[in-house]
Write a structure and sequence with these properties.
This protein is mostly helical. It has helices at 14-32, 35-45, 53-83, 88-95, 102-113, 121-130, 135-147, 150-160, 162-185, 194-197, 214-249, 256-259, 267-275, 282-294, 299-311, 314-320, 326-350. Helix 3 runs antiparallel to helix 11 and helix 11 (214-249) runs parallel beside helix 14. The protein starts with 13 loop residues before the first helix and ends with a helix.
Length: 351
């Protein structure tokens, strides 16, 4: 039973929350600052050594696993608190009636802080349209929410630094905004399924507002950690294990031959095409990205591969087919894929 389900008197007080957060923060930094020593101790205890394939793979796994989980837990808790200010109902209310352009920018920004996954695509899509949100603005949100989410940004920050995370954030938002503007300009409402077009005339619902105190917001942050980290940790372990195998056993410069900066021009489109049928999330794919880059693959090429996996997954397309006809799905995929290719080439050009 979660703390949200406990009786009012049984829930931790604000003082308990603050004391617990202070202790947790100190422990977090203490553990995070000794990850290398921990990984060194593990391979020493196993009788392995640096420089051997197995030693490098095991070191990679035991360094990255606690690092990713620590980063994810801390940032997801903060995002859980921030999201108490931006529930899906409030997001719909904020976007309804906004002009095209301003609405696209606002929708893409809200996509970063609003909880969303592929399974939520249809109900969110219907909810936005029924609230009077234009089709192009709705697509800006649908593209931004899975692609520029907190998990992707946290992992990119932890593995590549703030510069790469900031560039990914800026270019990801640009793809979401421009794709939404193009889809809105094309006036493709006729390619919605008939039952969806029937609800377009609905009026925007009134948002009653939220009155949460800080104890409830901290509780929501803790619940967000349980829901997100509890769901993605298997993907993290699998992703880091694959990354560790690549890091330890793939020969140096092997990946550079077909994913490096000097690779043929078609390597980047091929990476995007390869990513679309896959079904995973940022937590599972970013450790693989880290290992590929360590073996000589170009950053833009592997980030384009990652964006295609999390923004253009085949399962999400199948879900969206319930509300969109094929011409609109094809347009959506084509525009987003073109944006991802552009992002990949820009990354390869500037980094």
């Amino acid at each position: 039973m979660g703390s949200a389900d406990l009786p009012e008197k049984s829930r931790p007080s604000l003082r308990v929350w603050l004391l617990g957060l202070a202790v947790a923060t100190l422990l977090w930094f203490a553990v995070y600052s000794h990850l290398t020593e921990f990984a060194d101790a593990v391979i020493a205890a196993l009788g392995l050594a640096h420089g051997t394939p197995l030693g490098e793979a095991v070191h990679f796994f035991f360094y990255d696993t606690p690092k990713v989980l620590l980063l994810l837990t801390g940032i997801v808790f903060l995002m859980g608190i921030i999201q108490t200010f931006f529930s899906p109902e409030r997001t719909r209310a904020l976007l309804s009636g906004k002009r095209v352009g301003v609405g696209n920018v606002l929708a893409a920004l809200l996509g970063i802080v609003t909880p969303f996954c592929s399974c939520s695509a249809v109900p969110l899509f219907i909810g936005f349209l029924s609230a009077g949100v234009p089709l192009g603005v709705t697509f800006s949100f649908l593209i931004s929410a899975p692609m520029v989410n907190e998990v992707a940004l946290v992992l990119l920050f932890g593995m590549f630094g703030w510069q790469v995370a900031a560039l990914y954030l800026g270019l990801g938002l640009a793809v979401a905004i421009i794709a939404g503007l193009v889809i809105g300009h094309l006036k493709m409402e006729r390619h919605l399924e008939d039952w969806v077009q029937g609800i377009l005339a609905g009026s925007a619902p009134e948002f009653a507002g939220e009155r949460l105190d800080w104890r409830e917001r901290f509780t929501a942050g803790g619940r967000h950690v349980r829901e997100i980290v509890g769901k993605v940790w298997p993907y993290i372990l699998v992703g880091i294990a694959l990354g560790a195998a690549i890091h330890g056993y793939v020969p140096e410069d092997f990946m550079a031959s077909f994913m490096g900066k000097d690779a043929p021009w078609w390597s980047l489109p091929a990476a995007v095409a390869l990513g679309v049928p896959m079904y995973t999330n940022a937590a599972g794919v970013i450790p693989i990205v880290e290992a590929l880059i360590g073996k000589g693959a170009a950053l833009g090429t592997v980030l384009a591969f990652m964006m295609s996996v999390i923004a253009l997954s085949l399962p999400e397309m199948i879900i969206l087919r319930k509300v969109l006809r094929l011409p609109l799905i094809a347009t959506f995929v084509g525009i987003v894929a073109a944006g991802i290719l552009l992002v990949g080439y820009v990354f390869n050009l500037v980094l």
